[in-house]
Amino acid sequence: MTNRTIVVGLAGAFVGMTALLLIGGVVLHPIALALAVPFGAVSYFLWYHASGRLHDQARRSAEAAGPTERERARQRARAEANRERAYRAAGTDGGRGPNAGPGTGQRGARGPGGTGARDPRDRAPAADRMSEREAYETLGLDRTADSEAVRRRYRERAKRLHPDGEDGDEEGFKRLNEAYEVLKN
């Protein structure tokens, strides 16, 4: 027997009890009407669950709330991979010079005599500024969202991520603010 069958059976039992209490309230005593109300409410919620509508509503609420921590971690990993690809495409290695040894973290000699002269075209795009695409991903919106939707989503997430709140996430809040700054113009 599946869970759904059990819930449907329970809903049927509660509907029957509600009907008996309604009849008893009309025929015998009005207190039975007061008892019929909670039985009717339980019947409704059991039916709502058995029909699958409760699950659908919970899924829609979760989607509207935004990405989970696991999804945010995936987004960060994708952003990091995109930055690495951009560095490789630009012919740099993420800020380390071509003569630096592996793991040294030091820059090699640049230009003639190590003066630091370098062609600006050799540098990758600035990685410290969030792209518009990343900002939409951070807010969980598609690129067709208008400024009102951006503002609304920012406020919803800011309430949740604010560091002073119960579930505060300082890094997430900073990232959210950066995304909003990119998109509000």
UniProtKB/TrEMBL annotation:
<dbReference type="Pfam" id="PF00226">
    <property type="entry name" value="DnaJ"/>
</dbReference>
<feature type="transmembrane region" description="Helical">
    <location>
        <begin position="7"/>
        <end position="25"/>
    </location>
</feature>
<protein>
    <submittedName>
        <fullName>DnaJ domain-containing protein</fullName>
    </submittedName>
</protein>
<dbReference type="InterPro" id="IPR036869">
    <property type="entry name" value="J_dom_sf"/>
</dbReference>
<feature type="region of interest" description="Disordered">
    <location>
        <begin position="59"/>
        <end position="147"/>
    </location>
</feature>
<keyword id="KW-1133">Transmembrane helix</keyword>
<dbReference type="GO" id="GO:0005737">
    <property type="term" value="C:cytoplasm"/>
</dbReference>
<feature type="compositionally biased region" description="Basic and acidic residues">
    <location>
        <begin position="118"/>
        <end position="136"/>
    </location>
</feature>
<feature type="compositionally biased region" description="Basic and acidic residues">
    <location>
        <begin position="59"/>
        <end position="87"/>
    </location>
</feature>
<dbReference type="InterPro" id="IPR001623">
    <property type="entry name" value="DnaJ_domain"/>
</dbReference>
<dbReference type="GO" id="GO:0051082">
    <property type="term" value="F:unfolded protein binding"/>
</dbReference>
<keyword id="KW-0472">Membrane</keyword>
<feature type="compositionally biased region" description="Gly residues">
    <location>
        <begin position="92"/>
        <end position="116"/>
    </location>
</feature>
<feature type="domain" description="J">
    <location>
        <begin position="134"/>
        <end position="185"/>
    </location>
</feature>
<feature type="transmembrane region" description="Helical">
    <location>
        <begin position="31"/>
        <end position="50"/>
    </location>
</feature>
<keyword id="KW-0812">Transmembrane</keyword>
<dbReference type="GO" id="GO:0042026">
    <property type="term" value="P:protein refolding"/>
</dbReference>
